[in-house]
Amino acid sequence: RDDEIVLAHDVTLDRTTDGTGLVASRDAAEIAVLDAGGWFGPEFQGEPMPTLREVLAFARGSGLGLVVEIKERARIGRLVERLAALLDETGATLDIVLLSFDHVDLLRAKERLPGIRTEGITHARHADPVGVARAARLDSLSIELERFHPDDAVALHAAGVAIRCHLPPPSELAALARYGVDVEPEIGRWLSAGLIDTVSGDDVAWLAELVARYPLRPEPASRTFSR
To answer: How confident is the model at residue 223 (pLDDT cuts 50, 70, 90)?
Structure first.
């Protein structure tokens, strides 16, 4: 309500905090006193819902970059303006990648914040993925494993667009392997070949181990996309 950007997955407070109502109907000070961890487990009791300002400060102090997903729908114009002001104030423009399912919103953010890196989420395999990326001036595309194809990766990289591949948990991959469909070695080959720039998923320890097992082979000097 007071135009502070907070980190919340839902439009309402009901599912992930001990509060109720719309996130947009509360001031940041009211949200700060809610318990946003107890629902997940007793060891997280009392964990607050942070503001983006707080998380940016934590990340910078810890040497971390952030992928910040836009969840706001009703006040996207105001969100972009507030984000611009916050990044100008903190000098954190290069510390984040702005992520969204809504590529139009990302284009609006890019026009307002020329230095921001943007990543579009797609759950489809497009006939022209390069065209999709260029239409919204995206720096990268987030592609689910089942929609990833190496030919698309080659085309995107040639156009200077990076790729994040979102992987299912290892338990799902293990279940497939039991039936003779072992996709992990194929993922490893893609990683080693540099066809995937970053991976994401819910099991961070497994992701780190996977990347360590399939290190990137030396790549041609002609490659231009960013890591």
So the answer is: very low
Identify the three-state secondary structure at position 137: coil
Reported as a single tens digit per residue, the pLDDT across 124-167 is 999 999 999 999 999 999 999 999 999 999 999 999 999 999 99
CA pair distance 199, 168, nearest whole angstrom: 10
How is residue 37 written in tokens? 């961890």
Angle at 102 between CA 98 and CA 103, to 5 degrees: 75
Write out the E strands in 174-218. Answer: 198-200
pLDDT in tens, 84-119: 999 999 989 999 999 999 999 999 999 999 889 999
Inter-residue contact 97 to 117 (CB < 8 Å): yes
Taking the C-alpha atoms of residue 166 and residue 140, their distance in angstroms, rounded to an integer, is 13
d(CA 177, CA 180): 5
Contact 37, 44 (CB under 8 A): yes
- The Cα 39–Cα 134 span in angstroms is 41
Q: Check: CB of residue 200 under 8 Å from CB of residue 162.
A: no
Instruction: Output DSSP code: residue 68.
Output: E
What tokens does 132 get? 């999709």
pLDDT over 90 at 46, yes or no: yes
Question: Sheet containing 96-100: which strands, arranged edge to edge?
Answer: 66-69, 96-100, 117-122, 140-144, 162-166, 198-200
Strand, helix or coil for residue 81: helix
SS3 142: strand
Closest CA to 74 of 23, 7, 136: 23
